[in-house]
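Name: CHASE2 domain-containing protein
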Amino acid sequence: MAALFGCLLGLLVSQRVTGPTRADDTPAPLLSPSGFIDGISHWLDGGERVFYDWRIRQLGEVSERSDRVVLVSIDDDTLAEAQQGPRADIAAYPWPRQVMGGMVHRLVEEGASVVMLDFTYPELSPRACVTPTRTGRGALSQDDDALRALLDQDPGHSVLAFRWGAEGTRSLPPTGRLWPYRVRLGSYPGVTEARARAQSVLALQRPAFLIPAGKGMEVWAGVADEGEGRSLGEQLGTAAASIQERRAADDAFRVAPSDLFLALASVQVQGLDPEKLLEVRQLQHPVTPLLSPASGYGATTLPADPDGVVRGVPHLVAYSPRGGERYVLPSLPLAAAMRLAGTQKLRYAEGRLYIGDKYSVPMDASGYSLLRWEAPSATRGARGPLARSIRAWNVLLNLFDTQEARPTRFDHDLEGRAVILTNTSSYAPERRVTPIGPGIANGAVLGQALANILASDGIVRAPPKVDMLATMGLAFIGAFLALSCSWLLRSVGGAFLFVCVAVAAGAGYVG
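Structure predicted for CHASE2 domain-containing protein:
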């Protein structure tokens, strides 16, 4: 009885809420010893999640909603206003990417320190295709080029989104069998300049090759024949370009769009073992014309716990294309915080991730951070746990006023604040279920994650050593009470009093 009573009290502190399950986590057979233990653990984890959510809501009662992150929402009212407005280009959704770029530029002009776009653009814009008669940057999709040009007007103030998947097969290496020739497009002193040149080749749906040449790097493009090679060279501003037959060894130097993206988005983290991070297998990153060092890149994927509730954000994940070099990729909030801190340096120590010398956030070794929700319940509007949200229509009206040289109509008070531009309309993906309630937009969850980073706050897990000591202490107290009060079990009243003592001990821990 003493051992049983002590173990029951010890279980109260031995549990901790678990994170999302990995794709390769396969349950053991139920009738096996490990399967039986897993079944009990899952049952206990379910109870701990309910208890954890209650504690999170109690914490939200004494918290203050953050005003450092503002949500700009494309809601149903905004789309209805756009359909009835005089601008034909925004009457249908999705809007042209040039409009989205104009909104970002307008938000920065109104004082936003950084603007996160909770939209993935993995394909060329349907509004415009590649223009083969134009040269250089103008040869890209005009709509995507317009978005990139507007973002480049405010370098360092925008963060574009990508998504990842933990299941499926990795992307296969590109094949070069349809490109028997290659055309030389220039030689560059460094990899950065060469990648910028390769970007223009990839945007024209041609394979690009970065081939070392002495201390520099040559950029070649794959073509079907010599005539196409001369035409492509002229289109990209290279007269009398050298054309050669493509060799099988060239495939080792071939650059894919994902290679350009990984070079821009990946981060280095001091003190963190990448092998412990969640390894993702699929990426949906912005299309080639949108890639530029003037913007940051972060993931918007929010995996849920086994019960379907989103309780945290994986700030860091690992990706190994074709099983090769391992890259560490950040979340959208983390990428925004890096832009705000003006640093690419990340450091992990003692359960915290440090972003330069300015911000930090609690995070475990797998890259996962539990969110501190700064509200006891979700609001009916789009802002969720955040203090403020702005209708995108108001931003559009200010943008149109500026374009027509009129005074702007709205003062959004965005000076020094981070902004996340997201879709909360009927066209948006499904809402998230969270500890503070269902129906929260994906952008609001990401905004709360950024607010935690900017406040250097979050949910800190107790170290396993503390768990062990607390479990042993409560087990000892339980055993002592059971032995000292064993005489009470000789009567019904005594047994009832004994149970009350056990309940009081558990209630004391809850308090």
